[in-house]
Design goal:
single chain, 325 residues, Rossmann fold, 4-stranded parallel sheet, 12 helices
Length: 325
Protein backbone atom coordinates (compact mmCIF):
# COMPACT_ATOMS: atom_id res chain seq x y z
CA UNK A 1 0.00 0.00 0.00
CA UNK A 2 1.15 3.53 -0.77
CA UNK A 3 1.03 6.23 1.87
CA UNK A 4 -1.95 8.05 0.32
CA UNK A 5 -5.12 6.98 -1.49
CA UNK A 6 -5.74 9.59 -4.16
CA UNK A 7 -6.95 7.62 -7.18
CA UNK A 8 -8.33 4.16 -7.85
CA UNK A 9 -5.84 3.99 -10.73
CA UNK A 10 -2.97 4.01 -8.20
CA UNK A 11 -4.02 0.63 -6.76
CA UNK A 12 -2.47 -2.59 -8.02
CA UNK A 13 -4.52 -5.78 -8.13
CA UNK A 14 -2.79 -7.00 -4.96
CA UNK A 15 -3.44 -3.69 -3.17
CA UNK A 16 -7.13 -3.80 -4.10
CA UNK A 17 -7.61 -7.46 -3.09
CA UNK A 18 -5.79 -6.79 0.22
CA UNK A 19 -8.23 -3.94 0.95
CA UNK A 20 -11.25 -6.09 0.02
CA UNK A 21 -10.04 -9.00 2.17
CA UNK A 22 -9.26 -6.69 5.11
CA UNK A 23 -12.74 -5.18 4.75
CA UNK A 24 -14.23 -8.67 5.16
CA UNK A 25 -12.47 -8.91 8.51
CA UNK A 26 -13.66 -5.44 9.46
CA UNK A 27 -17.23 -6.41 8.54
CA UNK A 28 -17.11 -9.12 11.20
CA UNK A 29 -16.64 -6.37 13.80
CA UNK A 30 -20.08 -5.04 12.89
CA UNK A 31 -21.57 -8.36 14.03
CA UNK A 32 -20.14 -7.99 17.54
CA UNK A 33 -22.03 -6.49 20.51
CA UNK A 34 -19.25 -3.87 20.84
CA UNK A 35 -18.28 -2.65 17.38
CA UNK A 36 -14.83 -1.30 18.27
CA UNK A 37 -11.19 -2.12 17.63
CA UNK A 38 -8.29 -0.38 19.45
CA UNK A 39 -6.25 -0.29 16.24
CA UNK A 40 -5.96 3.48 15.76
CA UNK A 41 -6.15 4.58 19.40
CA UNK A 42 -4.13 7.78 19.82
CA UNK A 43 -4.29 8.66 16.10
CA UNK A 44 -6.04 11.84 14.99
CA UNK A 45 -8.00 11.96 11.72
CA UNK A 46 -9.63 15.07 10.28
CA UNK A 47 -12.54 14.93 7.85
CA UNK A 48 -11.98 17.95 5.62
CA UNK A 49 -15.14 18.46 3.57
CA UNK A 50 -15.41 21.40 1.19
CA UNK A 51 -18.49 19.88 -0.49
CA UNK A 52 -21.76 18.66 0.98
CA UNK A 53 -21.95 14.96 1.77
CA UNK A 54 -24.11 12.59 3.78
CA UNK A 55 -23.09 8.99 3.10
CA UNK A 56 -19.36 9.47 2.59
CA UNK A 57 -18.83 11.78 5.56
CA UNK A 58 -20.85 9.73 8.03
CA UNK A 59 -19.31 6.51 6.71
CA UNK A 60 -15.76 7.78 7.24
CA UNK A 61 -16.63 9.08 10.69
CA UNK A 62 -18.17 5.74 11.69
CA UNK A 63 -15.11 3.88 10.37
CA UNK A 64 -12.71 6.14 12.25
CA UNK A 65 -14.59 5.80 15.52
CA UNK A 66 -14.87 2.02 15.21
CA UNK A 67 -11.07 1.97 14.94
CA UNK A 68 -10.87 4.14 18.11
CA UNK A 69 -9.26 7.14 16.37
CA UNK A 70 -9.76 10.72 17.55
CA UNK A 71 -11.96 12.43 14.95
CA UNK A 72 -12.14 16.10 13.94
CA UNK A 73 -14.91 17.10 11.53
CA UNK A 74 -14.19 20.18 9.43
CA UNK A 75 -16.82 21.79 7.23
CA UNK A 76 -15.96 24.63 4.86
CA UNK A 77 -19.27 26.30 5.72
CA UNK A 78 -18.88 28.23 8.93
CA UNK A 79 -15.07 27.97 8.84
CA UNK A 80 -12.31 30.36 7.79
CA UNK A 81 -12.60 28.95 4.27
CA UNK A 82 -15.81 30.95 3.89
CA UNK A 83 -13.69 34.02 4.74
CA UNK A 84 -11.29 33.25 1.90
CA UNK A 85 -8.68 31.04 3.58
CA UNK A 86 -6.71 28.95 1.08
CA UNK A 87 -6.28 25.17 1.08
CA UNK A 88 -2.59 25.71 1.93
CA UNK A 89 -3.37 27.75 5.05
CA UNK A 90 -6.02 25.27 6.14
CA UNK A 91 -3.54 22.40 5.68
CA UNK A 92 -0.85 24.19 7.67
CA UNK A 93 -3.34 24.80 10.47
CA UNK A 94 -4.08 21.07 10.58
CA UNK A 95 -0.35 20.28 10.48
CA UNK A 96 0.15 22.49 13.53
CA UNK A 97 -2.48 20.40 15.33
CA UNK A 98 -0.56 17.20 14.57
CA UNK A 99 -3.14 15.22 12.62
CA UNK A 100 -2.17 11.77 11.31
CA UNK A 101 -4.58 11.55 8.36
CA UNK A 102 -6.78 13.87 6.31
CA UNK A 103 -9.92 12.66 4.55
CA UNK A 104 -10.66 15.36 1.97
CA UNK A 105 -13.61 16.05 -0.31
CA UNK A 106 -13.17 19.05 -2.58
CA UNK A 107 -14.97 20.54 -5.57
CA UNK A 108 -11.70 21.05 -7.47
CA UNK A 109 -10.32 18.05 -9.32
CA UNK A 110 -6.77 17.43 -8.12
CA UNK A 111 -7.08 19.07 -4.69
CA UNK A 112 -6.28 15.84 -2.74
CA UNK A 113 -3.24 15.23 -4.97
CA UNK A 114 -2.06 18.78 -4.34
CA UNK A 115 -2.49 18.33 -0.59
CA UNK A 116 -0.61 15.01 -0.57
CA UNK A 117 2.32 16.21 -2.68
CA UNK A 118 2.70 19.82 -1.61
CA UNK A 119 4.73 19.34 1.55
CA UNK A 120 2.16 21.44 3.42
CA UNK A 121 1.21 18.60 5.72
CA UNK A 122 2.88 15.41 6.96
CA UNK A 123 -0.17 13.15 7.08
CA UNK A 124 -1.79 10.40 5.05
CA UNK A 125 -4.30 11.84 2.56
CA UNK A 126 -7.44 9.96 1.51
CA UNK A 127 -9.51 11.29 -1.38
CA UNK A 128 -13.22 11.30 -0.49
CA UNK A 129 -14.14 12.77 -3.88
CA UNK A 130 -12.57 15.59 -5.90
CA UNK A 131 -14.60 17.41 -8.53
CA UNK A 132 -15.41 15.10 -11.44
CA UNK A 133 -12.11 13.27 -11.04
CA UNK A 134 -11.93 10.39 -8.53
CA UNK A 135 -13.71 8.75 -5.58
CA UNK A 136 -11.55 5.69 -4.82
CA UNK A 137 -13.25 4.44 -1.65
CA UNK A 138 -16.61 4.44 -3.48
CA UNK A 139 -15.10 2.23 -6.18
CA UNK A 140 -13.68 -0.08 -3.50
CA UNK A 141 -17.00 -0.45 -1.69
CA UNK A 142 -18.73 -1.09 -5.02
CA UNK A 143 -16.19 -3.80 -5.87
CA UNK A 144 -16.59 -5.24 -2.36
CA UNK A 145 -20.37 -5.39 -2.84
CA UNK A 146 -20.00 -7.04 -6.27
CA UNK A 147 -17.56 -9.62 -4.99
CA UNK A 148 -19.84 -10.54 -2.08
CA UNK A 149 -22.97 -10.82 -4.19
CA UNK A 150 -21.48 -12.40 -7.33
CA UNK A 151 -18.87 -14.71 -5.78
CA UNK A 152 -19.73 -15.03 -2.10
CA UNK A 153 -18.57 -13.68 1.25
CA UNK A 154 -16.05 -16.43 2.05
CA UNK A 155 -15.52 -17.80 -1.46
CA UNK A 156 -14.45 -14.34 -2.60
CA UNK A 157 -11.47 -14.02 -0.26
CA UNK A 158 -8.32 -13.54 -2.30
CA UNK A 159 -10.38 -13.29 -5.49
CA UNK A 160 -10.75 -10.47 -7.98
CA UNK A 161 -13.63 -9.85 -10.41
CA UNK A 162 -12.13 -11.52 -13.49
CA UNK A 163 -14.74 -12.25 -16.14
CA UNK A 164 -17.53 -10.27 -14.48
CA UNK A 165 -19.40 -7.91 -16.79
CA UNK A 166 -20.33 -4.56 -15.26
CA UNK A 167 -22.52 -1.95 -16.94
CA UNK A 168 -22.34 1.67 -15.70
CA UNK A 169 -25.29 3.80 -16.83
CA UNK A 170 -26.01 7.51 -16.84
CA UNK A 171 -24.18 10.78 -16.30
CA UNK A 172 -20.64 9.53 -16.93
CA UNK A 173 -19.42 13.00 -17.93
CA UNK A 174 -19.77 14.47 -14.42
CA UNK A 175 -19.23 11.25 -12.45
CA UNK A 176 -16.10 10.64 -10.39
CA UNK A 177 -17.76 7.37 -9.34
CA UNK A 178 -17.76 6.17 -12.97
CA UNK A 179 -14.11 7.09 -13.50
CA UNK A 180 -12.99 5.40 -10.29
CA UNK A 181 -15.02 2.27 -10.99
CA UNK A 182 -13.67 1.93 -14.53
CA UNK A 183 -10.09 2.14 -13.21
CA UNK A 184 -10.57 -0.28 -10.30
CA UNK A 185 -12.79 -2.81 -12.06
CA UNK A 186 -10.32 -3.01 -14.94
CA UNK A 187 -7.52 -3.63 -12.42
CA UNK A 188 -9.64 -6.40 -10.86
CA UNK A 189 -10.21 -8.05 -14.25
CA UNK A 190 -13.83 -7.09 -14.89
CA UNK A 191 -15.22 -6.02 -18.26
CA UNK A 192 -16.86 -2.60 -18.01
CA UNK A 193 -19.34 -1.04 -20.43
CA UNK A 194 -20.42 2.60 -20.11
CA UNK A 195 -23.94 3.43 -21.30
CA UNK A 196 -24.97 7.08 -21.61
CA UNK A 197 -26.41 9.67 -23.96
CA UNK A 198 -23.69 10.90 -26.35
CA UNK A 199 -23.79 14.31 -24.64
CA UNK A 200 -22.91 12.73 -21.27
CA UNK A 201 -19.89 10.73 -22.48
CA UNK A 202 -16.55 12.46 -21.73
CA UNK A 203 -14.11 13.53 -24.41
CA UNK A 204 -11.21 11.08 -24.44
CA UNK A 205 -13.26 8.12 -23.24
CA UNK A 206 -11.65 6.09 -26.04
CA UNK A 207 -8.52 5.87 -23.89
CA UNK A 208 -10.41 4.45 -20.89
CA UNK A 209 -10.16 0.67 -20.32
CA UNK A 210 -13.83 0.03 -21.10
CA UNK A 211 -16.42 -0.22 -23.88
CA UNK A 212 -19.01 2.45 -24.66
CA UNK A 213 -22.62 1.89 -25.77
CA UNK A 214 -25.62 4.15 -26.29
CA UNK A 215 -28.15 1.30 -26.12
CA UNK A 216 -29.04 0.19 -22.59
CA UNK A 217 -31.43 -2.58 -23.65
CA UNK A 218 -28.77 -4.46 -25.64
CA UNK A 219 -26.30 -4.55 -22.71
CA UNK A 220 -28.67 -5.71 -19.94
CA UNK A 221 -28.93 -9.45 -20.84
CA UNK A 222 -25.15 -9.86 -20.59
CA UNK A 223 -24.56 -7.85 -17.40
CA UNK A 224 -23.62 -9.31 -14.00
CA UNK A 225 -24.14 -5.92 -12.35
CA UNK A 226 -25.74 -2.67 -13.51
CA UNK A 227 -24.67 0.53 -11.77
CA UNK A 228 -27.03 3.46 -12.19
CA UNK A 229 -25.51 6.94 -11.82
CA UNK A 230 -27.23 10.05 -10.54
CA UNK A 231 -27.75 12.86 -13.05
CA UNK A 232 -25.65 15.62 -11.49
CA UNK A 233 -27.62 18.72 -12.31
CA UNK A 234 -25.53 20.85 -9.94
CA UNK A 235 -22.52 20.35 -12.25
CA UNK A 236 -24.45 21.03 -15.47
CA UNK A 237 -24.38 24.44 -17.13
CA UNK A 238 -26.26 23.40 -20.28
CA UNK A 239 -29.06 21.12 -21.48
CA UNK A 240 -27.51 17.67 -21.96
CA UNK A 241 -30.80 15.91 -22.80
CA UNK A 242 -34.27 17.11 -23.92
CA UNK A 243 -36.41 16.26 -20.88
CA UNK A 244 -36.33 14.11 -17.74
CA UNK A 245 -39.01 11.93 -19.28
CA UNK A 246 -36.93 11.33 -22.41
CA UNK A 247 -33.84 10.51 -20.33
CA UNK A 248 -35.81 8.07 -18.20
CA UNK A 249 -37.34 6.40 -21.27
CA UNK A 250 -33.96 5.66 -22.81
CA UNK A 251 -31.61 5.35 -19.85
CA UNK A 252 -33.74 4.76 -16.76
CA UNK A 253 -34.00 1.33 -15.11
CA UNK A 254 -37.56 0.12 -14.48
CA UNK A 255 -39.10 -3.25 -13.71
CA UNK A 256 -39.33 -4.31 -17.36
CA UNK A 257 -35.66 -3.57 -17.97
CA UNK A 258 -34.64 -5.26 -14.72
CA UNK A 259 -36.43 -8.41 -15.91
CA UNK A 260 -34.03 -8.56 -18.87
CA UNK A 261 -31.05 -9.00 -16.55
CA UNK A 262 -29.70 -12.50 -15.83
CA UNK A 263 -31.22 -13.97 -12.65
CA UNK A 264 -28.02 -13.54 -10.62
CA UNK A 265 -27.42 -9.93 -11.70
CA UNK A 266 -27.57 -7.06 -9.20
CA UNK A 267 -28.55 -3.40 -9.46
CA UNK A 268 -26.29 -0.82 -7.83
CA UNK A 269 -26.48 2.90 -7.10
CA UNK A 270 -23.94 5.10 -5.29
CA UNK A 271 -26.69 7.39 -4.00
CA UNK A 272 -28.41 9.68 -3.58
CA UNK A 273 -31.03 8.16 -5.89
CA UNK A 274 -33.40 10.30 -7.95
CA UNK A 275 -36.34 7.91 -7.97
CA UNK A 276 -38.46 7.99 -11.09
CA UNK A 277 -35.70 9.36 -13.28
CA UNK A 278 -32.66 7.07 -13.35
CA UNK A 279 -34.30 4.32 -11.31
CA UNK A 280 -37.91 3.50 -10.42
CA UNK A 281 -39.12 2.80 -6.89
CA UNK A 282 -39.92 -0.77 -7.95
CA UNK A 283 -36.26 -1.40 -8.80
CA UNK A 284 -34.80 0.62 -5.91
CA UNK A 285 -36.86 -1.32 -3.36
CA UNK A 286 -36.29 -4.75 -4.90
CA UNK A 287 -34.07 -7.44 -3.41
CA UNK A 288 -31.71 -7.10 -6.37
CA UNK A 289 -30.82 -3.49 -5.51
CA UNK A 290 -27.75 -3.20 -3.29
CA UNK A 291 -27.90 0.55 -2.50
CA UNK A 292 -28.35 0.03 1.26
CA UNK A 293 -25.72 -2.76 1.33
CA UNK A 294 -23.28 -0.41 -0.36
CA UNK A 295 -23.68 2.08 2.50
CA UNK A 296 -22.99 -0.62 5.11
CA UNK A 297 -20.07 -1.98 3.09
CA UNK A 298 -18.66 1.53 2.83
CA UNK A 299 -17.92 1.56 6.57
CA UNK A 300 -16.02 -1.74 6.33
CA UNK A 301 -14.02 -0.59 3.29
CA UNK A 302 -13.09 2.73 4.91
CA UNK A 303 -12.06 0.94 8.09
CA UNK A 304 -9.81 -1.27 5.96
CA UNK A 305 -8.26 1.68 4.11
CA UNK A 306 -7.61 3.63 7.32
CA UNK A 307 -6.15 0.56 9.00
CA UNK A 308 -3.82 -0.27 6.12
CA UNK A 309 -2.63 3.34 5.72
CA UNK A 310 -2.17 4.05 9.43
CA UNK A 311 -2.05 0.70 11.18
CA UNK A 312 -0.36 -2.07 9.25
CA UNK A 313 -0.15 -4.10 6.07
CA UNK A 314 -1.69 -7.38 7.21
CA UNK A 315 -5.41 -8.18 7.64
CA UNK A 316 -6.42 -6.62 10.92
CA UNK A 317 -8.42 -9.30 12.74
CA UNK A 318 -7.42 -12.63 11.22
CA UNK A 319 -4.30 -13.35 13.26
CA UNK A 320 -5.80 -12.58 16.66
CA UNK A 321 -8.80 -14.75 15.84
CA UNK A 322 -6.49 -17.59 14.76
CA UNK A 323 -4.45 -17.32 17.95
CA UNK A 324 -7.58 -17.59 20.08
CA UNK A 325 -8.23 -21.00 18.54
Amino acid sequence: MQRHLISAADLTRDDAVLILDTAEEMARVADRPIKKLPTLRGRTIVNLFFEDSTRTRISFEAAEKRLSADVINFSAKGSSVSKGESLKDTAQTLEAMGVDAVVIRHGASGAPYRLANSGWIDAAVINAGDGTHQHPTQALLDAFTMRRRLIGRDAGLGQDLSGKRITVVGDVLHSRVARSNVDLLHTLGAEVTLVAPPTLVPVGVDSWPCAVSYDLDSTLPKSDAVMMLRVQRERMNAAFFPTEREYSRRYGLDGDRMARLPEHAIVMHPGPMVRGMEITAEVADSGRCTAVEQVANGVSIRMAVLYLLLGGNEPAVTHSRTEEK
